[in-house]
Amino acid sequence: MKRVAIFGATGYTGFELIRMLLSHPGVKISVLTSEQYSDQPLAQAFAPFKDQLEGAAFGKMEKLIGAEFDLAFLALPHTVSSSVAGALLARGVPVVDLSADFRFRSIPLYESVYGVAHKNPALSAKAVYGLPEIYREKIRKTRLTAVPGCFPTSVILGLHPLVSGGLVDALGIVADCKTGVSGGGRGPALGFHFPEVDGGVRPYGLPNHRHNPEMDQELTLAAGKKVAVTFVPHLLPMVRGILATCYATLSAKRSAKDVDAAFRKAYGGEPFIRLLPPGLLPSTKDVRGSNYCDIAWRVDEKARRVIVVSAIDNLVKGASGAAVQCFNLMEGFPEEEGLRGMPLFP
Questions:
Q1: Which residues participate in catalysis according to the annotation?
Q2: Among 313, 325, 318, 323, which residue's Cα sits nearest to residue 271?
Q3: What is the pLDDT of residue 84?
Q4: Which of 295, 273, 289, 343 is nearest to 321 (CA)?
Q5: Closest CA to 221 of 98, 82, 103
Q6: Do 82 and 7 contact (CB within 8 A), yes or no?
Q7: If you average pLDDT over every residue of the chain, what do you get?
Q8: Is the CB of residue 240 less than 8 Å from the CB of residue 180?
Q9: Which of 108, 190, 98 is CA-nearest to residue 144?
């Protein structure tokens, strides 16, 4: 039985971690931290999990960072994780980090994107990017996993088989993404306030959304040459989900059969990627509450255009579900443990 801590447990990703880990037979949630809600009784701070968290220590991070546990999930703000992770790893506690602090392979790039100085650049070099479908074996061996951002997860999974196989041109790739408001976090913000969002659709974060460099980094590594994605996120009046529609130009002498073969080779045996049959296209409704990523593609050979559509739940496969999947790999559990729940429908 692994004792786990969740730092930043009262945010949306923290709640998702609790929901999934409570069904994991190899886990005991032993520590929960919150800076904002730690003065409340446990049952009040975690009302959806009433009577399920008895025995877990609850309080501020400063008080509980030295408690006894076997692995820590860091659902903390960017810049906070980088200092906390170092202290935990120094005493032998593995870390699954859900912030951006360890996702970037270039520290100057991270610092330019987030506008801060990295607090632990040496440690960042030891982190493994937490996409099991691409880095599974490295995740098994690491003590520090950096869970990708939600938008990068949807876009990278959709494009990686094509880019890595040279089936599409590296230039001119477009990712048009739609997301629900939970991606903005639990704290109140005018742009994500229900009366401001309901009844409308709007783009945001143009032209320099902070997830864009993360996509470019991983797809450039896959292609072996520079890839620069034109990324346009849109906010929809829904709580959960990301739908990514990606456009690319089919490489010379490549065909629709090559595209089909690339996706089936890359993902045919993946437990959480569902390749949809002809006639079906992904919908956020079909993955809601689950760790699945649904992918479909269409090829217009005359126009030399490939369109890939992927759908994920931004809080699960785009965050906490991926974190549990990485935890399972790091700690030797079956990869699907705690993640077998089906989508919530309707």
A1: 150
A2: 325
A3: 95
A4: 289
A5: 103
A6: no
A7: 96
A8: yes
A9: 98
**At 205, which amino acid appears?**
G
Say which amino acid occupies 46: F
What share of residues in the chain are helix, strand, coil (percent, to 5)? 35, 20, 45
Sign of the Cα pseudo-torsion (178, 183, 186, 189, in order): negative
Query: Which pLDDT does position 193 carry in this prediction?
Result: 86
Distance CA 147, CA 16 (A): 14
Which residues of the chain are in CATH 3.30.360.10 domains?
Answer: 150-316
CA-CA distances (angstroms) from residue 346 to 179, 242, 278, 343?
A: 18, 17, 23, 9
Q: Please state which architecture CATH assigns to domain 2-126.
A: 3-Layer(aba) Sandwich (3.40)
- Alpha-carbon distance of 215 to 155, in angstroms, equals 7
> Both ends of the chain: CA-CA distance in Å?
35
**Number of neighbouring beta carbons within 10 Å of residue 227:** 22
In 3-state terms, what secondary structure has residue 338?
Answer: coil
Higher pLDDT, 127 or 186: 127
Integer Cα distance of 147 and 96 in angstroms: 7
pLDDT at 186 over 90: no
Contact (CB, 8 A) for 73 and 98: yes
Task: List every span in the chain annotated with CATH 3.40.50.720.
Answer: 2-126
CATH 3.30.310.50 at 150-316, yes or no:
no
Q: What is the pLDDT of residue 27?
A: 98
Q: Which amino acid is at 111?
A: E
- Model confidence over 278-287: pLDDT tens digits? 999 999 999 9
Question: What number is the average pLDDT over the span 189-199?
Answer: 89
Q: Are 84 and 7 in contact (CB under 8 A)?
A: yes
With 0-12 CB in 10 A as exposed, 13-18 as middle and 19+ as buried, what is 47? exposed
Residues 6+ apart with CB under 8 A from 92: none
Q: Which amino acid is at 339?
A: L
